[in-house]
Design a protein that fits this description.
Layout lengths: L28 H9 L5 H8 L3 H10 L24 E4 L2 E4 L1 H16 L4 H10 L12 H11 L4
Antiparallel strand pairs: 1-2
């Protein structure tokens, strides 16, 4: 047996210190549902508070029969008023239907699904009807495609 300590005088040893929190396996889904619906916390906020992953929180909310909106945020808890999805608007922190924008959404879907118009022809059709986007500019193909992908089968 060879003693290596005599030959290694300039050796440094690294010790990894990893901090972790224990995952509370017994978190009651009803408590999470209360935080989500009554306290208005997002899934990310709940995950940080209770020490679970976002996926685990979403799973436990589903167990409690609570459906999550887009990005883990319920439609009753929409805080980001600067850019709601086209066809919706934020009033008092709640996401509601924007009737004016939904006319455009329905027209896009009608042009694509019923009339089988191309993206370019759909864009031209909306601009010829005088519809403008939120920035009061003519429609572009990209924005029409995004609206269609979000609303096809829903509007």
């Amino acid at each position: 047996m060879v003693d290596h300590t005599l030959h290694c005088t300039n050796t440094s040893h690294l010790i990894d210190i990893i901090e972790f929190t224990t995952v509370p396996k017994g978190v009651n889904p009803l408590n999470l549902a209360h935080l989500y619906t009554n306290n208005g916390l997002t899934v990310n906020q709940i995950a940080d508070r209770v020490g679970l992953s976002k996926a685990a929180v979403i799973g436990r909310l589903k167990e409690a029969a609570v459906t999550c909106g887009q990005n883990g945020r319920s439609e009753e808890n929409y805080r980001f008023a600067h850019n709601p999805p086209y066809g919706k608007k934020v009033v008092d922190g709640k996401l509601i239907t924007n009737r004016v924008e939904m006319k455009v959404v329905r027209e896009v879907i009608r042009c694509r699904d019923q009339e089988k118009l191309s993206w370019h022809k759909t864009t031209t059709h909306l601009n010829n009807l005088g519809y403008r986007n939120r920035a009061d500019r003519p429609w572009t193909k990209t924005s029409i495609v995004q609206i269609y992908q979000r609303w096809a089968g829903k509007a």
